[in-house]
Amino acid sequence: MVDFTLTDKQREVRALIHGFAATVLRPNALAFDRAHCVPDDFLMRLSMMARAFPSGGGDAELPSEYGGQGDSGAKPAAPKKGSQAQRFTLIGAEEMAWGDASILLCMPGPGLGGPPVRFMGTPEQRARFFGVFQTPGLHFGAYGLTEPGAGSDVSGIRTSCRKDGATWVLNGRKCYITNGARADWVVIFATVDPALGRAGQRAFVVERGTPGFSVGKIEEKMGLRASETAELVLEDCRVPEANLLGGEALYAGKEGFMGAMKTFDMTRPLVGVMAVGIARAAFEYTRDFVRENYLLARPLPRYAQLAAMVAEMGRLVDASRLLCWRAAWMADEGMPNAKEASMAKAYAARAAMRVCADAVQVLGAHGLEKHQLVEKWYRDIKVYDIFEGTAQIQRIVIAKRILREVPTW
Amino acid sequence: MISFELTEEQSLVRETVRKFAADELRPVARTTERGGACPRELRGRAAELGLGLLDVPEAQGGAGLGLLGAALVHEELAFGDAGLAIAILGPHAAPAALVELGTPEQAARLLDRLAAPQARGAIAWSESGPGLPLGGFRTTARRDGDDWILDGEKAFVVNGGVAECVVVFAQDAGTTGWSGAGAFVLDGRGEGATAGARCEWLGLEVVHAAPVRLAGVRVPGRDRLAGAGGFVVGAQRMFARIAIANAARQVGLARAAYESALAYTQDRVAFGKVVAHFQAVSFTLAELAMEVDAARWMVWRAAASFDAGAEGALLHAAQAAVQANDAAWRVADHGVQLLGGAGFVQDHLAEKRMRDTKTLALLGPSDQDHLVAASCALGLTEDAGAGLPISALQPVVT
What we know:
Radius of gyration of chain B: 21 Å
Low-confidence stretches of chain B: none
Number of domains of chain A: 3
Oligomer: heterodimer
Shape of chain A: globular
CATH topology of the largest domain in chain B: Butyryl-CoA Dehydrogenase, subunit A, domain 3
CATH superfamily of the largest domain in chain B: Butyryl-CoA Dehydrogenase, subunit A, domain 3
Distance between the termini of chain A: 25 Å
Largest interface: A-B, 50 and 53 residues
Mean pLDDT of chain A: 88
Structural class of chain B: alpha+beta
Structural class of chain A: alpha+beta
C-alpha cells in the first residue's frame, strides 16, 4: 500500500538522530567550518555516541557512517528484498545533514569506500577491510576514482596498474578524495591499459602506509570546508594481489566496471537526501526567521512575496525527499533503480541549490552574515550538484534509460 | 512505512482506466475538442466503468477509491485527454462540496441526485465584475420562511446550465466575509436559474462551462450546506479535494506530453543523428521525466495524507497542486518545443496540451491561492479564508 508515513521504529531513530544533530552537530558547524577541520577528539566522542544508536530494526542496518553498526564484514553482498535498510539510511542521513553536512562526511567509517568493498569485494576482503572499523580508534575508508584529467568520464582514468609477481604496481594521481589523507584504506581505480577502456579497469584497496602511496595537497573549498578533501599520489606503489577487489575473476567480464557503477545506485539517493537535509535546514531557518522578525511587516504586500518564497522552499524540500525515498524503496525491494537514483540526486541537488539561494535572498543582508549558517548552507550545497556524478552525468544516466523505455501504450 | 506500492485493486483500476483512455479518449481528443462537446455515449461509458463518484465512500453510493485511488484515475484519464478527463465525469466537483460541506444526511440524500449515469453536477463559486467583496460573495441568500431565496450571478461554472445538481455559493443577506457564506444545492435547470453564453476558453474546450444567473431561486432550508466545522473549513477541504484531483490530471497531461516528445525525438533524424541522441534534447527529456515523477509523488502524498486524515493534508494538497501545475506547464511547453514547428500545428496534440495545462491551472484554486494556504499552514501569514479563491482578485474556474 502506498504510504508516506514512518514506522514507529523509524520515527524513534529519526528523533534520536535529530536530537543528536541539533545538540551536537549544529552548534559546532560554524566553528569547524572556520577551522577547516573537525577535531579528532570531537570525532572520537561522536563515534562513541553514534555507537549508542539502535540499528534499523529487523534486518535493516544503518551503515556506521550514519550512526549504526552496519558494515560488519559478514554482510551479504546484495541487499535482501524487503529490507528497509536504504529507507533507514536515508532517514538518518537527512537528519545528520540537517545538523551539519561537513561533520557527516567526517564521520568515521568506510564512507563512500564502503559500497564498492561491499559489492565487489570477496568475503575475505569484506571481513578484512570492514574489520578495521571494529577496532578502537578513529578509522576511515575512502573512494578514489577522480583524477586531474578524468572526473565524470570514469573510463578516461589514467592511473596505471601493472602486475608484477604477487603484487600490483600502481602509478598515478587521484584528486578530490573525501577523507583521503586520514583514511585507513582507499579504493583506488586504475587501468591495465587505457586503450582497453572499461575492460582494462581494476579496483584496489590501497592501505595507508603502503610504500609509494602519499598524500598531495589538501584542497581549500567553497563549502563543506570542515570535510577533508585530499589529493593522493601513487608512485610505484606496490599493492598485494589480495587487495584487488573481487579477485582477477571479477574482471573477466563487464562486471568489474559495472560494480563501480552499481555502487552509485546506492549512494546517489543518499547524496540526494543529504542535499534535502541541508535544504530543509535552510528552509526551516528561513521560515522561523520570517515568522519572528518580519512580524510588523505582515500587512505589506512585499511581505506576501517573501512568505510565498518560503512556502515554495518547503515544497521543493518535500518533492526532493519523495524522489529520494522512491529510489530507496526500489533498492529495498530489489528493483533496478539506476534511473530513479539519478533522478533523486539530480532533482534534490538542484532544488536544494534553489532553496539555499532563496534563503539568502529572503533574509536579505542577514543571509550574508558569517555568524549565521545561511551563507554556509549556500556554500555547502553547491557541491551536491557536482560530486557523485555531476548534474550533467545524472541526466546522461536518466536519458540513456528513458530512451530505452516502452511508452505507456 | 514508506512505500510506493499500489494495492492490487488500485493497480487494476489504473490498468482498466489506462486502457479506456488509450482506446476511447485519446483517439477522439481532437474531434471532441473541435466539436466543443463530450458525446453522451462517452459519459455513459465512464459510468459503466464505475467512474462516477470516485472518492465518495461506498456507504454513500460512491466508488470508495479514496483520493489516492481517484488520483490514479484522474492521471490516466488526463493521459488520454485532459479535457475529456473532466467532461466524462458528470458529477464534476459537486461531490466534493456535498461531502465536505453537507451533513452525512445531506450528503447521502443529495449525492443520490448524481447517481444516475448521465447526471451532472456543478459548483458555482466564482463571480465576475468590478467591486466584488474580498471575502464572501455578492450573490445573496435571503431567508423566506424555511426556504432561502438566491439572487445573483455566478461565473466560470463547469456544467453551468446543464447540471441537475448545482452547489451555489452565496452570502447570507446582511452578512459580509467568508463566515457569513453558505452553499445551496439546487437544480441548475430549475425555475429562476438561467445559464449565460457558453464560455470559450484557451483550452479544455470539450468541457461545457457557462455563467449561471439566479433570479429569486427558491432553495429549501434542508438543502443549505453549512459545513460541520464551519463554512471556511468545509470549503478549504472541498478545494483540497478538487486540487488533488486536478493535480493528478496535470500529472497525466504532463506524462502524455513527455512520452509523445520522447517518441517523436527518437523517431526523427537530423544531421544524420536521431534527434533524441543530441545531448541538448536528451537532457531536456531527462528533466521532463523527473518533473513528471516528482509531481506524481507529491500528488500521491497529498492524497494519502487526506485519506488518512493526517494533519498536514491541506498543506500537502497545496504543495502538490503547485508542483503539478509548475511541472505540467514546463513539460507541456517542452512538449511543443521538442517537436519544433510540428509542435505548434494541430497535427499533434502537443499544442493542445500547452493550452489545456494553463486552463487546468485555473480550475480550482490558483497557485497564488495555494501559496497563501501554504504560508498560513507554515505560520507565516494569517488569513481567515486561506486557500479560498477570491473572485475580486483572480477568479478561477470551478
